[in-house]
Amino acid sequence: MKFNKGFFTYSTILMSLLWVSCGVDAVLSSRQNVVKKHNCRITYYCGDDKWGDQVAHSATKRAITGVTVAAHPDFSFGTKIFIPELKGHVGDGHFIVQDRGSSVTSKKAAKGKAYVFDVYVPTKREQNTHASKRPMYMEVQVLRP
Predict the structure, then answer these.
(1) Number of helical (H) and strand (E) elements in the chain, helices listed first
(2) Band of residue 12 on the pLDDT scale cut at 50, 70, 90
């Protein structure tokens, strides 16, 4: 198999530019969806407590792993957020505010200094695993509706 050196170099450059421009477009489009970023305390809860998998948002029947997060009332029900650090660990890192709780409302876990997001996981074991292996504070990106 013979390659024309000039053609190979030219096509390699074009393919590289195309690949880079597609990558840049993907990054720019994801950044355009971010309304605001916060450094927040992340905690975890599961259905093993007295509330089970019930949530405060009336339009949602049950908490769903990789979807449901409890948040401060500054974040209305239905607000979509992205926590990059949890991507691949709890779903794809995208969550919807579907719950409240006295600890997140009072920012108790952050001693009143930062927002607290309480991520729903299915079991106590996962709750403990995430709490011990993940950072306490993470970037939370509030996404455009």
Answers:
(1) 3, 6
(2) very low
